[in-house]
Amino acid sequence: MNLPIDTLETLQRAHLERLKAAYADVLAAHKFDAVLIYSGHAGVHFADDQEASFKSYGHFVHWTGASHHQHDWLLIQPGSSPRWYYYAPEDFWHLATPAPQGVLAEVLTPQPLRDTGWPPPRDLSARRLAVIGNLEASSMPLGAELNPPALLAALDELRMRKDDYERHCLFVANQWSLAGHDAAREAFALGAGELDIQLAYLAATRQRESQVPYQNIIGINHHAGTLHYQHYDVDAPDTPKSLLVDAGHSHAGYAADITRTWASTRADPLFERLIQGVTDYQQHLISRLAPGLDFIELHQEMHRHLAELLIDTDVISTSTEAAMESGLTRAFCPHGLGHSLGIQVHDVGGRQRDGSGAPLPPPAADPALRLTRTLDAGMVVTIEPGIYVIPMLLAPFRQGPQRDAVNWAAVDRLQDHGGIRVEDNVIITSEGHDNLTQGRPIAED
């Protein structure tokens, strides 16, 4: 899954050169002489000395790939080499951060910092300096501007379109994640509960829980109907029927976000039909991906396919249009079709207008939709339709005028199966798209 080292170094060097040129343009457009990016630092739990989990600031990771570095700084000043001040104190409690190597050391001019705080003042000669990151305004030097909104919007926009190096990192993350999903499915088939499935996933992907890009969702039976289910039962249920795994991997700071749903031998046959139906129309939606496609329209198309599937399987008995207009399909699938993916799982820039950074809010009927843009080459998106039996969302229809449009006996049979979600990660190309979850890396030299 890895490219030859010389090919990878060529891609990484091109990535950093692209960022240097793009940052020079962005800073000039916003009349800044330089930007200082802070990686961030972990907070401690209240009344405790233990730190919470930590992930570095996305714009810092965009350059460095260092997704867990605390107290680091990156100085970008057009006309000078970028400077990476990495925090490496003399410490016997913790292992010191190693010096950056390879292309990163070549391009970013690393310099160790022995203490937290600002980098050496001699390197902050810019007349107009922007500082971005999780910092207090009171800590800014005189004249520095903290997190200027227009600049941040422009840098968010820069992260929307991935280059070949980023595409490769995302592909590698996907391949590791798929290995984890295979391990999770095998563990479920052998009778494991949620916690042991999680441990099997982590072992197969060679990750600690602190390294995954988001908390893995591993839900058996009705737990699969909680969209962001956050617990792991220690014991397996007496009658396992379904398993939903929404879990990823992080490679060089870039995230995979994959979901699969499986039925056990004890599942209702209708549930198996619905899994296949969701998989089929998920692949159809992926086949439509190309530059110029309005993602909101594709989200609405998902609801049309969902209505048709529910009608074909006799879960509902109404027209496609009525199911959509009444909100019935949204009761069965309340989340959006997908989102931008990159350094962050729900990556930046998905709800802003290209160029201006003006907000692009989701439709009123779909407040959870995280991507509202027209697709363009280089964007990476998730496609993740689903069907769920969520009693609180279906209750108004069970008690309302549309109650006869739903086969409640079928719904009740499905309730202890929870739900279905199928998710792939796809990059938009000039010719159409490439499914990173099922595709191939860029061609080797």
TrEMBL record:
GO terms for biological process: proteolysis. Mn(2+) 2 binds at residues 246, 257, 423. Gene3D superfamilies: Creatinase/methionine aminopeptidase superfamily, Creatinase/prolidase N-terminal domain. Binds 2 manganese ions per subunit. Splits dipeptides with a prolyl residue in the C-terminal position. Belongs to the peptidase M24B family. Bacterial-type prolidase subfamily. This is Xaa-Pro dipeptidase. The lineage of its organism: Bacteria, Pseudomonadati, Pseudomonadota, Gammaproteobacteria, Oceanospirillales.
